[in-house]
UniProtKB/TrEMBL annotation:
GO terms for cellular component: membrane. The chain crosses the membrane at residues 12-33, 174-192, 212-231, 243-262, 274-297, 317-341, 353-375, 395-416. InterPro entries: TMEM181, TMEM181_GOLD, WLS-like_TM. The keyword Transport does not apply. The gene is TMEM181. This is Transmembrane protein 181. It is found in: Membrane.
């Protein structure tokens, strides 16, 4: 087995690794807090002048650029004397979207009027309604004509709001994605360079998985992201979503395989070892990708489409996803408890378990905090916040989440890579005083004559070995 740097680190080095991890994460968080807001809004109020019959309303957006990325039009209905009113009624909404070219000519984006049933919910104040959403921008300006049918309520005001990405945030996103792409490429090359002198058969399961996760992390940072601003197409956005789902599901699969594989030595059969894990994680990946593709395809034909409102099977998909996620969590907890129980007295293997569990626990806690700050108590509401649940509400969320996953993989790559003297140490296999660091996983798990040897940084052992060689 190729030695890991993890075996040669002292307690002081472990503390230093965690300190560096938190410093890097803290710097990205500070930059995010001081960064620009993700969403910028422009309000267009429309007064009904006590008209009893609602007429179609035409609203024109501000001039846009590709840095605005996407466009939402939302509406908040204000009723007469609505403070003590609790109303929930369905009505028909019609929308026609036109694009305005740079020369001022009007062009149809969708050569028909779209009609959808919407629900107006008012409890003191009416909930926000999403009128239309454009996933990418082909024109510099848009005109939306909105009609309301069968809405017979005492309406006082209708407040329409345009919401787009902040161009300043788009530039920040481009630069930081580029920085993470460069850093990931460097870390991947250094990790591969450190393992070049060892046969792949001698790699540990963590080292094999890191050789897969680092290239996927490169895709997760999306080196093709600038195409979104150069090509007026839905394809770069869908490609970004696909890369993110691939990496996140691979990370879930990595945890299952490592906590199980560290106990199962020798040949890990595909049918009994990998197939159940691929099946569970594959269902999660399939559900997320299917929902994303279905949303994108339908929005291309209908800007009013919302899978939370217009898809009857969304609740079924949501229940299915939560059920599979619960099975995954229970399975992972079972593997962690069993591994820690069986291997807690095994030198070095126990160290691998403790380090991975501690670092992963820190990352999960921070991720849960980020998700709570993003969703809050409105996670189940079908409003604009829920519609933007797959996007970031401020720069701090974006940078903290991306930085967290990147620095997590960088830290694992550092501790799992062989040290500078790894090749020299691996050639000392016959030396009893050094055999524990270079034994296979089978030798470590089932013990040897030197299980009681304390973890050292290798310096004293090498010195002792040289003295014995000189005396001979």
């Amino acid at each position: 087995m190729a030695p890991m740097r993890l075996y040669t680190l002292s307690k002081r080095h472990f503390v230093l690794v965690f300190v560096v991890f938190f410093i890097c994460f803290g710097l990205t968080l500070i930059v995010g807090i001081t960064g620009p807001e993700v969403i910028q809004t422009s309000v267009a109020n429309f007064s009904l002048n006590n008209s009893k019959k609602l007429k179609p309303i035409q609203i024109r957006s501000n001039p846009l650029s590709t840095y605005n990325q996407q466009l939402w039009l939302t509406c908040v209905v204000e009723l007469e004397q609505s403070k003590e009113t609790s109303i929930q009624t369905n009505f028909s909404m019609t929308v026609k979207v036109n694009g305005v070219a740079q020369d001022g000519t009007m062009m149809y984006i969708h050569n028909k009027i779209h009609n959808r049933t919407r629900t107006l919910t008012c409890t003191g104040k009416c909930a926000e309604i999403i009128v239309a959403h454009l996933g990418y921008l082909n024109y510099t300006q848009y005109t939306v004509t909105v009609g309301f049918d069968h809405l017979s309520l005492p309406i006082k005001e209708m407040n329409f709001t345009w919401k787009t990405y902040n161009p300043a945030f788009s530039q920040l996103e481009i630069w930081f994605r580029f920085v993470f792409v460069v850093l990931t490429f460097i870390v991947t090359c250094l990790f591969a360079h450190s393992l070049r002198k060892f046969s792949m058969r001698d790699w540990g399961i963590e080292q094999k998985w890191m050789s897969v996760l680092l290239p996927l992390l490169l895709l997760y940072n999306d080196p093709f992201f600038p195409l979104s601003f150069l090509v007026n197409s839905w394809f770069p956005g869908m490609l970004d979503d696909l890369f993110q789902s691939m990496f996140l599901c691979s990370l879930l699969l990595f945890w299952l395989c490592v906590y199980h594989g560290i106990r199962v030595q020798g040949e890990r059969k595909c049918l009994t070892f990998y197939l159940p894990k691929f099946f569970i994680v594959g269902l999660l990946w399939l559900a997320s990708v299917t929902l994303g593709i279905w949303q994108t395809v339908n929005e291309l034909h209908d800007p009013m489409y919302q899978y939370r409102v217009d898809t009857g099977n969304f609740q079924g998909m949501k229940v299915f996803f939560m059920a599979v996620a619960a099975v995954y969590i229970l399975y992972l907890l079972f593997l962690i408890v069993r591994a820690c129980t069986e291997l807690r007295n095994m030198p070095y293997v126990d160290l691998r378990l403790k380090f991975l569990t501690a670092l992963t626990f820190v990352v999960l806690v921070i991720s849960i905090v980020i998700l709570y700050l993003r969703f809050g108590a409105q996670v189940l509401q079908d409003n604009f916040v829920a519609e933007l649940s797959t996007h970031y509400q401020n720069s701090a969320e974006f940078l903290s989440f991306y930085g967290l996953l990147n620095f997590y993989l960088y830290t694992l790559a550092f501790v799992y890579s062989p040290s500078k003297n790894a090749l020299y140490e691996s050639q000392l296999k016959d030396n009893p005083a050094f055999s524990m660091l270079n034994d296979s996983d089978d030798d470590v798990i089932y013990g040897s004559d030197y299980e009681e040897m304390p973890l050292q940084n290798g310096q004293a052992i090498r010195a002792k070995y040289k003295e014995e060689s000189d005396s001979d």
